[in-house]
Amino acid sequence: MQTANRRIEVLEGDITKLAVDAIVNAANNSLLGGGGVDGAIHRAAGPELLAECRNLGGCATGAAKATRGYRLPAPWVIHTVGPVWTGGARGEPVLLASCYRECLLLARELGLRRIAFPAISCGVYGYPLELASNIAVRELLAHFAGETTLEQVNLVAFSPEVAQAYRRALVETADQSAG
Ligand code: ADP
Questions:
Q1: Which of 50, 40, 45 is nearest to 13 (CA)?
Q2: Residues 89-102, buried b or exposed e (16+ Cβ, 10 A)?
Q3: pLDDT tens, 100-126?
C-alpha cells in the first residue's frame, strides 16, 4: 500500500465529535445551514457559526470557505458545496473532485495537520456512493503526492455502507498503484 494511503483513515461515526484541526461541512450554496451533516454541524457549533456564515456571501458549487468551529472540538470548519447528482452528465464528477481539492488546498493554506470529510453529496444530493468514494480517494492521493501540511485525513462514514465504499475505494486504488 502507498505511503499516502496510510495517511487516509476511514472512521465510522459522527463528524461533529472529532477533535481534528478541521471538519468539512457538506453545505448548500447559501451556507446558512440545512439538513444532514450541515444541520448537525450547525447544532453542535452553536449560533456563532451561522453568524459567521452570514458574512460569507454563500459559496459556489465545487468551492470551499473556512470558518471557526466555535463549540465544536475542531477549531475550523471548511464548508464546501457538492453537486446535486442528476445522472452524471452535468459536470458532477468534476465538481465533486473540486470540492475535495479546494478543501485540501484551504487546509494547507491554514497549515492544518488533520482534517475529516463527510461523504460530500452522498446524502440528500444523491451522488452514487461508489463513484463518490473513488473521487474522494483519488483526490486525497493526488494531494498527498504534492507538498502539504496535512498528516492525516479521516473519511467519516455515518453508516457501515459508506465505510465499506471507502474501504473498497482505498483497496482498489492501492491495487492499481501496485500493478
Ligand atoms: P449532501 O447534501 O451533500 O448529500 P448530506 O448531509 O445529506 O449532504 O449527506 C452527506 C453524508 O453525510 C451522508 O453520507 C450522511 O449520511 C452523512 N452524515 C449525516 N450526518 C452526519 C454526521 N453527523 N457525521 C458524519 N456524516 C454525517
A1: 40
A2: eeebbebbbbbbbb
A3: 999 999 999 999 999 999 999 999 999
User: What is the pTM for the complete model shown?
Assistant: 0.96
Question: Does 5 have pLDDT greater than 70?
Answer: no
Give the residue, out of 37, 43, 131, 164, with the most ligand 1 atoms within 8 A of its beta carbon, to mutate for a pocket test.
37
Q: Rounded to the nearest whole angstrom, what is the distance from the C-alpha of residue 179 to the centroid of ligand 1?
A: 34
**Helices of type H across the chain:** 3-6, 36-45, 47-54, 92-109, 129-144, 160-178
Residue 88 backbone class (left: φ over 0; alpha: ψ -120 to 50; beta: rest): left
Nearest CA to ligand 1 atom 1: 121
pLDDT digits (tens, 9 = 90+) for 51-106: 999 999 999 999 999 999 999 999 999 999 999 999 999 999 999 999 999 999 99
The SS3 call for residue 10 is strand
Q: Which residues partner with 155 through β-bridges? A: 10, 117
